[in-house]
Amino acid sequence: MSPTVQRVTPQPVFRHAQQHMVRMRDGVLLATDVYGTDPGSGPAPTVLVRLPYDKNSRYVFFDRIAPRFTARGYVLVVQDVRGKFRSQGETLGWTGEVDDGYDTIEWVTRQPWSDGIVGMFGDSYFGFTQWSAVSSQHPALRAIVPRVTCTSNGPGIASYDKGAGQQPLWLEGADYQAHVWVDNDSYEFDADLTKRPLIAAYEEVFESLGKRSPGFDLIVGDIPLPAYNGPHPYDARPVPVLHCVGWFDNLGTAHMRDYTELARRPGWAAVQYMIADTIDHENYFLENAPVSPGDDHLVDDDALERMLDSYTGPALEFFDVFLKGAAGPESLPRVRWKLGHVGWRTSATWPPPRATESTLYLGAPAAAAGAVPGGDLAARPAAEAESAEWRYDPDDLVPSAATDTFMQLRDHRDERGTADRDDVLVFTSSASDTPLDLAGPVRAVLHVESTAVTFDVFVRLLDLAPDGTARLILRGCVQADAPGEVEVDLGHTGYRIRQGHRLALMIAGSDFPNHLPNSGSLENPWLTTAPKASLQKLRTGSTHPSRICLTVLPVSGE
User: Fold this and answer.
1) Which of 34, 68, 287, 448 is 20 to 30 A away from residue 471, measured at CA?
2) Global pTM?
3) Could you give the CA distance from residue 128 to residue 302 in angstroms, rounded to a whole number?
4) Which pLDDT band holds residue 155 (cuts at 50, 70, 90)?
5) 301-322 vs 62-70: helix axis angle to the nearest 10?
6) In angstroms, what CA-CA distances link 39 with 14, 71, 113, 234?
7) CA distance 539 to 505
8) Contact 177/148 with Cβ under 8 angstroms?
9) Residue 42: which region, alpha, beta or left (left: phi > 0; alpha: psi -120 to 50)?
């Protein structure tokens, strides 16, 4: 029986928006809303947003954002990208945005309400459209504010995603393609992920729709998709950029790779800024997690208004400097970051200047397959060689930290039950008498092997509270095809391990439904009907020093 599919169509154009159909160079017309062009207001700088999620939907809430920008003296322009909702053209994400970005900026600069200066703003895919406009190198583009996004978040766009290693297949990303990138509309359904082969769960949806998602097919076929028909943004003309990073964002690791890569390039380093908050991809806050109905901005209008203060405020300050020249660049902190459970900090660099690397070694592995506390996280590796094993069972997969990691903090689950499973390994530190402040990158270096020709290693760093609850701080993963040392990038964070709390490191062989189960063979995981179980081994000790490398601040603070 096929799942129920609900079609999501465009919402009415907001009454205070003027919609235009803007012609691209190939004749395709893109639906574009303009706010803030009241008679007598005169030419003004423009903030442009290009998105695929219906410019008039509550989900992107631009009817509420627009007054914040127009009251500050900006024209706000919001556009449905090619092939989505009211816009014409082929529906295929992560391609064509370079030219469409250039052509839209060109149209803006030719309007009587434009002073010829343009900035761009937005989350996720509408962060990617900003990087595409950077690639276009239109001279009117003077500043961008990409939020919870990266330059490499589309199918096949990985050439600049350095440091990630071979990754397990992100089922959540493919599922997104099947919902959003079929045609102009989007579709809501729950795929039956118990089916084998797993691709059958989506084939039945496409059959019921009578159409497919080209982006989904690119992922399944592992077919590269060229995103930038211009220079990669790293190699384009630098423009001032405010990276808005979420410590709990599922794209946060890739976003911070953009930040660190651009920091190595003098032209970009001179004009990049960062604000990093304790938020996930959908802008839920650690301080509200788990989120109550009254704090859920996706359903509560008052909660949405509160969220929009932090959502738009930093962008407006940034644009006031780089679009209006209302203040000098020196008025902005280079890095503003929130230390989880504490509050805001500023710094000249990231990581903060006084941050140092601290290494904890995995020890007592014989206890690691048992319940928490399991093995140890110690200051030095044990002299003797030791090991522990964990199994991968495709019929009993380890549950993900959140069913939907775009909303990681909405539920912010207690992971204790997962950490106590007998098919994961867990290692814990001793409880500290003083707080431990994490401020920078975290990585795990593990010595592993498997009975399978290919296997996945999933790592979660948890905050283990005195009451026994365990909640996610960071996560990362890697696919391995040979025995030896693997490095797992867990991303960056600003987070306090409070007095009496402990760090817990969890290692697993699956992460479902966020990631596709490994086939355990050379067979395509999408197509296999019988993925193979396997047994993994972790080695520890001085000759195989499996470890977690943290970036920490001195006890006294920054």
Assistant:
1) 448
2) 0.95
3) 29
4) low
5) 40
6) 19, 15, 9, 40
7) 15
8) no
9) left
Tens-place pLDDT, residues 1-15: 678 999 999 999 999
DSSP 235: G
Tokens 């920078």 correspond to 440
The DSSP string of 163-230 is T--S---BHHHHHHHHHHSSSSSEEE----TT-SSTTHHHHHHHHHHT---HHHHHHHTT------SS
Q: How far apart are CA 539 and CA 449, in angstroms?
A: 9
What would the two tokens of residue 461 be? Answer: 């760093």
256-285 CB burial, b ≥16 within 10 A, e <16: bbbbebbeeeeebeeebbbbbbbbbbbbbb
CB 231 within 8 A of CB 135: yes
SS3 content of the chain, % helix, strand, coil (to 5): 20, 30, 45
CA distance 406 to 56: 21
Q: 164 falls in which pLDDT band (50, 70, 90)? A: low
Tokens coding 286: 């650690």
Cis peptide bond upstream of 231, omega within 30 = no
**d(C-alpha 517, C-alpha 198), whole Å:** 9
Which has more confidence, 487 or 1? 487
Please name the helix (run of DSSP H) or strand (run of DSSP E) that holds residue 490, with its range, or none.
strand 484-497
Give the CA count within 13 Å in the CB-facing half-sphere of 514.
23
The backbone torsions φ and ψ at residue 377, rounded to the nearest 5 degrees and listed phi first, read: -115, 110
Tell the residue number behind the tokens 């966020």, with chain if given: 514
Which residues in 314-454 belong to E strands, given as ranges?
335-339, 343-347, 356-363, 375-378, 386-392, 425-428, 436-450
Write the single-letter amino acid at 113.
W
Contacts of residue 263, defined as CB under 8 A and 6 or more positions apart, other chains included, come to: 269, 272
Q: Name the residue with tokens 């803006």.
A: 108
